[in-house]
Amino acid sequence: MPLHLSPAQPPDFPALIACQKTSYLSPKNTLYTLFCPMNRPTAADSLAEATERQLQWHEADPSSVWLKVTDPDTKDEEHGGDKIVGGACWHVYEKEAPFRGDEGEKGEEKMTCYWWPEEGRKREMADQVLGQLMGTRAERMVRPCLLLEICYVHPSYRRQGAGNMLVQWGTQKADELGLEAFVESTADGKPLYAKHGFHCTNEILLKGELDDMDEGLKRLQEELTWRAYYMWRPKGGKWVEGETVVPWVR
Asked: Residue 109: pLDDT above 80?
């Protein structure tokens, strides 16, 4: 049977986030290190914390839409049900922009990496990188839009259509609502997003920098340095070179 796309439900999250971990560690994704650090007593503890936190974020955010891709021919022996082989989190900001220019996210205090247990310089560096990511969004997402925040496919199921299904859900929703869409992409993801009408507007470099860093902080700096691409999909996915104007240019 073909792979199947459907909305993810709260009971799906243990399998959904377990698939996320496997996907983002092959190859390793810097933002996974930022948002899901392996800094609990055991790897299982870290995974459980990341699963609970992402479910809490989803349930508290009306813009959040989690999707799953399942393989009906393979059962998940650990979690039960059809095997989850990919997932995505889209945010649908239908009525209002999520940010007001560079003022930060509406209705919320500045986000910090509170899931990092150390209240020290490692946490400070993680907060720096997160602030750079959110600041970039705040400068650009100034109108109602969609954001593809998370998208991954299990290494064993890549190039079988799962990624297309996850991205197409959001682009169809964007076209239905007459909205633009955003995604921050790795080099590996660029061709997939371009296929669905996203245009690369600029490169991204997220990098923490502290004074008098010891070897441990230098290693963390390297782990948290992220080079990626900011991609924007105009309304309808129509980009005309020399004519289309990005929304954050006043």
From this structure: no
Mind listing the pLDDT tens digit for each residue in 143-186?
A: 999 999 999 999 999 999 999 999 999 999 999 999 999 999 99
What does the alpha-carbon distance between residue 85 and residue 163 come to, in Å, rounded to a whole number? 10
User: How far is it, in rounded angstroms, from Cα 133 to Cα 156?
Assistant: 30
The tokens describing 93, both together, are: 């900001």
Q: Which two tokens stand for residue 56?
A: 């809490």
68: which strand partners?
6, 87
Question: For 2-20, what is the mean pLDDT?
Answer: 98
What does the alpha-carbon distance between residue 147 and residue 55 come to, in Å, rounded to a whole number? 18
CA distance 24 to 158: 13
pTM for the structure as a whole: 0.93
- How many C-beta atoms surround the C-beta of residue 205 within 10 A? 9
Amino acid present at 236: G
Backbone angles phi, psi at 213, to 5 degrees: -80, 135
Check whether 108 has a pLDDT greater than 50: no
Rounded distance between C-alpha atoms, residue 233 and residue 246, angstroms: 9
